[in-house]
Each structure stands twice: as structure tokens, then as C-alpha cells.
Specification:
alpha+beta, five-stranded antiparallel β-sheet, four-stranded antiparallel β-sheet, 25 helices, 11 strands, V-type_ATPase_116kDa_su_euka
Length: about 850
């Protein structure tokens, strides 16, 4: 089989590169993305490897680029992304890149530091401007008629002793009085400053408590927010002025201001001095605004120039770093002139890899060609399944369960059909399927533009990555919707019903419960495609009929799916030449499944073919037996109940003998599955110990599991398992298969259950929501219908398409992982992870966006 059905054949190769050509050759291999290198220095510390200094230099360049990117994003400057991937620079170009990044970083940091210093000066001048304005209001209160309030406030700051000593003091004034013979200790003074608005209440309380009420605080809010020069945030502040008396209180007030990070500014006492200072402050603010504008323009020009090349710089640095990181995995020969590497490569691509190595050698100017030797190994190769944009999502579903063992059958090609089909059995509705298919088709048509956006929205990335799955699920759901004749819970009468009404109109209108007889009212030919629309109006037995129909097809699809899974195991056994497993596992498993569950499916078809309402007894509808009861009686060897008069117990001649034989044969398969393989392995080991035979025996016959053989280029070389472990493993496997056959068959009934639930929810939404709007008349009815339709559409998309679709998707995933893949798929391999620049750059871009 081709690589579509199995993973690629892999080869372990040894690569010899000249030191001067190694960088260019690895660069070419990175562009190719088909080589997975092995670490030949696993015990060497990362800081002791040969190219650790180059990796550090790349890390430093990446740090500088991230700093530039952060500054560019802060200014909202768009970064040019052409979508092209430049080639990895030569090693000598690293010096030029480092110099460019160093110059840009230093220039930008210098500009930022200057801008921050200017903004800090601007903030201080702005705060001082507000202080001068607000404190002028405070002082104007004293001069404009508030002398009594000010005098009482100031007198409250003066102790009784001072009041007694200065009884002839006269009117009290704020601030320092003119020099006189009085003691200056008793003269009130003030400080002014700015504090964050949210710190003002605790600041005021602390002043009151620490100074025991001997201070007077006035504050006013600054209406416009101020910019913090450190982080650029907008902060709200308030101006305050504190009046106190004495050096002791002055020291205490300043310490409290320092503790609350309040900024104190000098405020002259004299009005003329204040006005003069305010004019000087305004002049300096205007000058600072001019300088700040020029600084921001220069910074913007630097960032715009850097934004044009930033994406390409990131790609170049990441490629250089990836190359040196890969070179650290290589070994040096004794002469220190040759690098030796080991790598896994796909067998079909060896020539392509050799051409890439030659190109690298020519670019480097080396005269010694590289050498690529294929090695023999007993290690398990990595699993590599080639995918394209269509098959990638389906392969991801399989790999989420477990990466396939090397050269194991790949379920992904079959999943492309079975996954959307089983989903559609549960989701079958022409309308809902059309919505899903149109959404998937829109993503497919716009995939180039949507992929170029590179959003970090995880939910959207999941939807976009599975666009082909969504489209196929929608298309298949439209098909099953036509089969069910279901569109938004209604039916399409395309070909006309094949049932006839034998009652007159009055009888139909007066009687709530009427039945149409299949014998008299059915034309005898089925509806050409899907379900007859007459069942849409069958209120009493519509669900009963749909239950019987969907339950049976669920079992039929489930058994066929499981039988197909067992047949897939035959392909694995024949490919790996595992004769014991083929004879003593595959054949008993297939016989067990066919004789019990496939026989039950055959009984369903026999019942559909032989029994009908138009047939006379013993093949009329009254004589049709229950398949479930028949199957239970068969397994338990029960005697069937006496039939109705003129009916037969069995559906065909010899049924009892056939059923007993089938059950006995199925039961006989169980000990074969349980004991045959371990006993043969034990016998083969005894013979091998007594008389060694020239030539290697099959791994399967000695207790191993061959994953390679002649096809895989070397299978695993494992130690022999203990016989007790083999017996235990085989017992678990047999019990799991026998019991799982029953539980897995019942598990497929979820197809019926979810299909029924989906149809009923759609009918409830139609009956309880949309039909209300359809019953309204007149212009008001049109308004009501518009609102009701919008509500119904939201519920349909949100509940029936999204939520029910997700539920059906998860159930389909479980049916494939557990019921289907457990029959043949081990999933014990490890993925092929080639050295690829595309993957490295994509992962690096995603990590940068997350940060």
C-alpha cells in the first residue's frame, strides 16, 4: 500500500559534513524540512557545546527584536509582513545584524530615556502650575473677606502659652509675619504639594492623628488627569496645602508626605512672587512641549524604519539560531574538521536530500562533498504520514488518540469518509447541514486571507484548522437530512406521498386518532428517495416508527464499522508477517463478530424482506418476530415462546440449528484467542532453547511484536517478555474484545439517540417559537414574525448547529477512537519531527503573539 494508508518508510542515515560547509548544508535541509536529527551529545551540558556562544548571540538579538516589537506595538505602527521567508544569512552577516540591532536599541533607549526625563520635568511643571493656581485661591480667601475664618483657624494652631505671651498680637495672618520682636516659633507656616487622589483620605487621617489636630489641610482636585512618565498611565491627583506651626510639626508633616509619596513644591508667600513664578512655569511648559514633540517625532521615525524590516529580521535570527542549535547535536571527528550527524529521513526523499546537501556545499565554496550513508538499526523509526491541507485535519484527529506505530495501518484515509458520515447520521437535517456546509465552504474559499491574519484566538484556529471536516460534515448531514426527509423539523414533498387517504374530510377533522393501513392505503412502491413525507403529519406513531428505523440502521452501521476495523488488523498482520496473530487472533475475532452480531444484522434484513402487511400469514406483519428477543434467546439457548396462530416460530428453515451452531462456534473462539498464541510462543521458546536454528525467527513467534521486518528497514530489538506477562496481556486483550464486542455494538445506539434528540429539539423550536410568529396576521404580525424569526434563528444556530454539532462531533470521535480503532490500531509510535524552518518560525511567531 502507498504512504496514504501507511506511514512513510524511514531510514537512519549518517551524515558527514566539512566544518566550513556544515552551516550552509544544514540551512538547505531546514528549508527542505525532511530530516530529523538525533542528539549525539546527550550527556553534554547545553552550556558546554561547540556553538553555544552563537546561540547566545542569537538569543540576545531576539531579545533586542522583541524590545523593538514591543515599542512598535505600543505606538500602534503596522509591521510590514510580505509573507516571504528570506534565506538564512551567512555566518559573517551576523555581525552586521548585531550592529544594526545594537544601534537601534541604543538609539531607542536613549530617546526613551530623554523622553521620560522630559515628561517627568513636564509633569513637575504641570503640578507646580496647578499648585500655584489652587493655592492662590486659598490665599485670596484671606484677602477677600474670609479673615475671620482664617484668623480662627490660625489661632487654633497657636498654643495657649503663645496666645498669652502675644496677647497684643492683633490680627493673625497666614504665613510668616514680617519680622518683629515676637518669637518666630509661634508663627504659622505651610507646605504645598500634590498627591494621588486615592491616597488623600488616609493621608488626611494620618496628618490629623500624628499632629493631634494641630494642622489645617486644604485640598483641591486637579480636573485633568496627568500622565505618569514611567509607564504612560493616566493618573488623577489633588493639590493640597498644609498649615502648621513650629519646626517640630514641620518635620513631622514632611515625613508623612514622604511616606505617602506626595510631591512637595516651593510656593512663594508673596502674591507677586507667585505670579512671577507662574509666568516662568508657563514659559518652560511651552518650551518642553516643543522639545517633547520633536522627541516623539524622532522616536516615531526610528520605529517606522524598524517596522519595515522587523518580520524579516525575526525570520533571519530564528533561522540562524535553529541552525546553530542543530549543529550542537552533531559530533566532531578527531581532526576537528568534520561534523558527524545521525538523522531519520524518508526513504523516498533521500535523493532530494542529497541534492540539497550539494547545493549547500556549493554555496559554502567547499570542495569536499558531503557523505550520506544509510545505517542499519534495531530502533523503532518515527512515524511520518504525508498530509496536505485537506487530509491534515483528519490526520490530527487520529494523532490526538495516539501516533501510529511505525508502518501500522493509518485510519485517516478511511476516517475522511466514515467520520462525517457517522456524524451526519446523528445530525441529519438538510437545513442545519446546509448552514454548516456553507460556513465550511466560506472558510475554504477565503482560506488564504484568513490564514494570513494569524490570530491567536484558539477557538477560531480550531474551527479554521478543521474547515474541511466542517464542510464534509455539513454535506453529509444534508444527504442524511434528505434521507430522513427533515429540514428544520419539516419534510419536503418532492415526489408526492405514496400513501392514500381512505377517509373523508369530516372523519379526519372529527377524529383525533386515525391510522392508515399499510395493506389498504399504501401504494406498494416506496418513496423514491428517503422518508415518505406522510410521516411528518403522523403525530401518534411518528416517533415510534423513527425509533425502530434509526435504531436498526445504527446497529447495522456499527457492526459493519467494527467488522471493517477487524479486517484492517488482517492487513497489519500480513504486512508484518505475524502468522500467529493472523491465525489465532484475527480469524477467531472475525468469526466471533460475524457469527453473533453480523448474524443479528442479517436477521434484520430477513425480517424486512420476508414480512410485510400485504403478505399473508405466516409472513404478515403480525407474525414478524422481535430481533432483540430472538438474539437474546439465541445467546442464552432459551426456547422461543409459542407463536401467534398461523405464525412460525422461526424466520427460516433450520434457524434453531444455525443459531446453536453459531453460538457454540463463537464460544469456541474464546479459548483460542485466550490460550493459542501464548502457548505457541512458549513452545517456540522451548524449541529455540533446545536447538538454535540458523536464521532469525519471526519476532511474533518469540514473544516480540514486529514493527518493521523486511518492509520497515529494521524492526524493534526488544527483550523477551516473561511468559506470565504474555498470558496476562493475552487474557486482558481477549476479555476486552469479547465484552467490548457487546458494549461497542450497544455504543453505536448513540447514533439513534442523538439523531432522535436532534430531530425533537428542532421540532420543539419550530412549534414553540417560529409557529407563534407564523400564526400572526396583519402588519403587526409581520413585526412579530421578524422578531420571532430572529430569535428562532439565534437558537437554531446556537443550540442546534453549534451545541448539538459539538455533541455529535464528540460522540463520532469516541466511536472512531474506541469502537473502530481499538480493533487494529495500537498508536504506540512517536511522530516524525523534522528540522524545518517553516515549523520553527510558525511556533516562534505564535509564542511571540502569546507574550
Amino acid at each position: 500500500m502507498g504512504s496514504l494508508f501507511r506511514s512513510e518508510e524511514m531510514a537512519l542515515c549518517q551524515l558527514f559534513l566539512q566544518s566550513e560547509a556544515a552551516y550552509a548544508c544544514v540551512s538547505e535541509l531546514g528549508e527542505l524540512g525532511l530530516v530529523q536529527f538525533r542528539d549525539l551529545n546527550p550527556d553534554v551540558n547545553a552550556f558546554q557545546r561547540k556553538f553555544v556562544n552563537e546561540v547566545r548571540r542569537c538569543d540576545e538579538m531576539e531579545r533586542k527584536l522583541r524590545y523593538l516589537e514591543k515599542e512598535i506595538k505600543k505606538d500602534g505602527i503596522p509591521m510590514l509582513d510580505t509573507g516571504e521567508s528570506p534565506e538564512a544569512p551567512q555566518p559573517r552577516e551576523m555581525i552586521d545584524l548585531e550592529a544594526t540591532f545594537e544601534k537601534l536599541e541604543n538609539e531607542l533607549r536613549e530617546v526613551n530615556q530623554n523622553a521620560e526625563a522630559l515628561k517627568r520635568n513636564f509633569l513637575e511643571l504641570t503640578e507646580l502650575k496647578h499648585i500655584l493656581r489652587k493655592t492662590q485661591v486659598f490665599f485670596d480667601e484671606q484677602e477677600g473677606g474670609a479673615n475671620q475664618t482664617t484668623e480662627s483657624m490660625t489661632r487654633a494652631l497657636i498654643t495657649d502659652e503663645a496666645r498669652t505671651a502675644g496677647a497684643s498680637m492683633g490680627p493673625v495672618q497666614l504665613g510668616y509675619m514680617e519680622k518683629s520682636n515676637e518669637r518666630e516659633d509661634y508663627l504659622p507656616c505651610f507646605v504645598a504639594g500634590v498627591i494621588l487622589r486615592e491616597r488623600l483620605p488616609p493621608f488626611e487621617r494620618m496628618l490629623w492623628r500624628a499632629c493631634r489636630g494641630n494642622v489645617f489641610l486644604r485640598q483641591a482636585m486637579i480636573e485633568t488627569p496627568l500622565e505618569d512618565p514611567t509607564n504612560g498611565d493616566q493618573v488623577h491627583k489633588s493639590v493640597f496645602i498644609i498649615f502648621f506651626q513650629g519646626d517640630q510639626l514641620k518635620t513631622r508633616v514632611k515625613k508623612i508626605c514622604e511616606g505617602f509619596r506626595a510631591t512637595l513644591y516651593p510656593c512663594p508667600e508673596a502674591p507677586a512672587d507667585r505670579r512671577e513664578m507662574a509666568m516662568g512655569v508657563m514659559t518652560r511648559i511651552e518650551d518642553l512641549n516643543t522639545v517633547l514633540g520633536q522627541t516623539q517625532d524622532h522616536r516615531h521615525r526610528v520605529l517606522v524604519a524598524a517596522a519595515k524590516n522587523l518580520k524579516n529580521w525575526f525570520v533571519k535570527v530564528r533561522k540562524i539560531k535553529a541552525i546553530y542549535h542543530t549543529l550542537n547535536l552533531f559530533n566532531l571527528d578527531v581532526t576537528q574538521k568534520c561534523l558527524i550527524a545521525e538523522c531519520w529521513v524518508p526513504l523516498l526523499d533521500i535523493e532530494t536530500i542529497q541534492l540539497a546537501l550539494r547545493r549547500g556545499t556549493e554555496r559554502s565554496g567547499s570542495s569536499v562533498p558531503p557523505i550520506l550513508n544509510r545505517m542499519q538499526t534495531f530502533e523503532n523509526p518515527p512515524t511520518y504520514n504525508r498530509t496536505n491541507k485537506f487530509t491534515k485535519a483528519f490526520q490530527a484527529l487520529i494523532d490526538a488518540y495516539g501516533v501510529a506505530s511505525y508502518r501500522e495501518m493509518n485510519p485517516a484515509p478511511y476516517t475522511i469518509i466514515t467520520f462525517p458520515f457517522l456524524f451526519a447520521v446523528m445530525f441529519g437535517d438538510l437545513g442545519h447541514g446546509a448552514i454548516m456546509a456553507l460556513f465550511g465552504l466560506w472558510m475554504i474559499r477565503k482560506e488564504k486571507g484568513l490564514a494570513a491574519q494569524k490570530t491567536d484566538n484558539e477557538i477560531w484556529n480550531i474551527f479554521f484548522g478543521g474547515r474541511y471536516i466542517i464542510f464534509l460534515m455539513g454535506v453529509f448531514s444534508m444527504y442524511t437530512g434528505l434521507i430522513y426527509n427533515d429540514i428544520f423539523s419539516k419534510s419536503l414533498n418532492i415526489f408526492g406521498s405514496h400513501w392514500q387517504m381512505s377517509y373523508n374530510k369530516s372523519t379526519v377533522m372529527e377524529n383525533k386518532y386515525l391510522q392508515l393501513s399499510p395493506k389498504d392505503d399504501y401504494e406498494g412502491t416506496p418513496y423514491p428517495f428517503g422518508m415518505d413525507p406522510i410521516w411528518q403529519v403522523a403525530g401518534s406513531n411518528k416517533i415510534i416508527f423513527h425509533n425502530a428505523y434509526k435504531m436498526k440502521i445504527s446497529i447495522i452501521f456499527g457492526v459493519i464499522h467494527m467488522v471493517f476495523g477487524v479486517v484492517m488488523s488482517w492487513h497489519n498482520h500480513t504486512y508484518f508477517r505475524n502468522r500467529i496473530s493472523m491465525i489465532y487472533e484475527f480469524i477467531p475475532q472475525l468469526v466471533f463478530l460475524l457469527l453473533l452480531f453480523f448474524y443479528m444484522v442479517l436477521l434484520m434484513f430477513i425480517k424486512w424482506i420476508k414480512f410485510a402487511a400485504t403478505n399473508p400469514k405466516p409472513y404478515s406483519e403480525a407474525c414478524a418476530p422481535s430481533i432483540l428477543i430472538t438474539f437474546i434467546d439465541m445467546v442464552l439457548f432459551n426456547k422461543p415462546k409459542d407463536p401467534v396462530r398461523d405464525c412460525h416460530v422461526y424466520m427460516f428453515w433450520g434457524q434453531h440449528f444455525v443459531q446453536v451452531l453459531f453460538v457454540l462456534l463463537a464460544l469456541g473462539c474464546i479459548p483460542i484467542m485466550l490460550l493459542a498464541k501464548p502457548m505457541l510462543i512458549m513452545q517456540a521458546r522451548k524449541l529455540a532453547n533446545v536447538q538454535p536454528i540458523a536464521g532469525a525467527s519471526s519476532d511474533a513467534e518469540t514473544g516480540g511484536v514486529s514493527n518493521g521486518g523486511p518492509h520497515g528497514g529494521g524492526g524493534p530489538h526488544e527483550e523477551e517478555e516473561e511468559m506470565s506477562e504474555i498470558f496476562i496481556h493475552q487474557s486482558i486483550h481477549t476479555i476486552e474484545y469479547v465484552l467490548g464486542s457487546v458494549s461497542h455494538t450497544a455504543s453505536y445506539l448513540r447514533l439513534w439517540a442523538l439523531s432522535l434528540a436532534h430531530a425533537q429539539l428542532a421540532e420543539v423550536l419550530w412549534t414553540m417559537v417560529l409557529s407563534i410568529g407564523l400564526k400572526q396576521e396583519g402588519w403587526f404580525g409581520g413585526v412579530i414574525l421578524t422578531c420571532v424569526f430572529a430569535f428562532w434563528a439565534i437558537l437554531t444556530v446556537g443550540i442546534l448547529v453549534l451545541m448539538e454539532g459539538l455533541s455529535a462531533f464528540l460522540h463520532t470521535l469516541r466511536l472512531h477512537w474506541v469502537e473502530f480503532q481499538s480493533k487494529f490500531y495500537k498508536g504506540q509510535g512517536y511522530a516524525f519531527q523534522p528540522f524545518s524552518f517553516d515549523a520553527i518560525i510558525e511556533n516562534g511567531s505564535a509564542a511571540t503573539e502569546v507574550e
